[in-house]
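Subject: Re: docking follow-up (zinc ion)

Dear J.,

Thanks for your patience while I sorted out the input files. As discussed at Tuesday's group meeting, I've set up the holo structure prediction with zinc ion included as the bound ligand rather than trying to dock it afterwards. The sequence and the ligand SMILES I used are pasted below, so you can double-check that they match what you have on your end before we go further.
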Amino acid sequence: MAYRYWCGECSFKTSWGTESQGQKEHLEHYTVHHTGLVPGGQVETNRKDPDGGGSCLAFIALAVLLVFLAASCHH
Ligand SMILES: [Zn+2]
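The structure tokens for the complex came back this morning:
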């Protein structure tokens, strides 16, 4: 699950990431751009996780390839 936090004061949106990453980025944005205001806005969630899903699959494919290479070396 990916999270994206929307600023309640302007059109700023954090990048997609984990819940804690988004909260941190959102808080940093308020500290810099809306000093003294309580962080507001809304949270957008994405079950497909567009950033994490693809790279994870590529990593599994690479790991499988390495296992095959390692196995063929021992023969
Ligand atoms: Zn803002």
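A couple of observations from a first look. Residues 7, 9-10, 12, 29, 33-34 surround zinc ion (CB under 6 Å). The two ends are 42 Å apart (CA to CA).

Let me know if you'd like me to rerun anything.

Best regards,
T.
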